[in-house]
Write a structure and sequence with these properties.
Elements: E1 2-7, E2 10-13, E3 18-26, E4 33-39, E5 46-51, E6 58-60, E7 68-73, E8 78-83, E9 92-99, E10 107-108, E11 112-117
Parallel strand pairs: 2-11
Antiparallel strand pairs: 1-3, 3-8, 4-5, 4-9, 5-6, 7-8, 9-10, 9-11
């Protein structure tokens, strides 16, 4: 079992910044991919970003490129999502997830709310 706990969400004005954290614990092993997803009201959950086990490879959805940065601290088993220049359309519940080299997202966190006011 793997537990993922997100934190760092909140209310921010458009143009502001937030940093989300996701701490992983349990049987993660040594090589796993972590990712961030979000789900806005009335919409399907969508991919935001992911980072490989070494931190050297990252991917972003087009709408956040240049504004969001994903990073990880292997020693702390924690992944971060630095979100700058936030827009109202970034409002959503943000979830982190882990891929234990299975090719799919094996575990999910409980989510953290991000609200961007205009």
């Amino acid at each position: 079992q793997v537990q993922l706990v997100e934190s760092g969400g909140g209310l921010v004005q458009a143009g502001g910044s937030l940093r989300l954290s996701c701490a992983a614990s349990g049987r993660t092993g040594s090589r796993y991919t972590m990712g961030w997803f979000r789900q806005a009201p009335g919409k399907e959950r969508e991919f935001v970003a992911r980072i490989g086990w070494s931190g050297g490879r990252v991917w972003y959805t087009d709408s956040v490129k240049g504004r969001f940065t994903i990073s990880r601290d292997l020693a702390k088993n924690t992944v971060y999502l630095q979100m700058n220049s936030l827009r109202p359309e970034d409002t959503a519940v943000y979830y982190c997830a882990v891929d234990l080299s299975s090719g799919s997202w094996d575990y999910w966190g409980q989510g953290t709310q991000v609200t961007v006011s205009s």
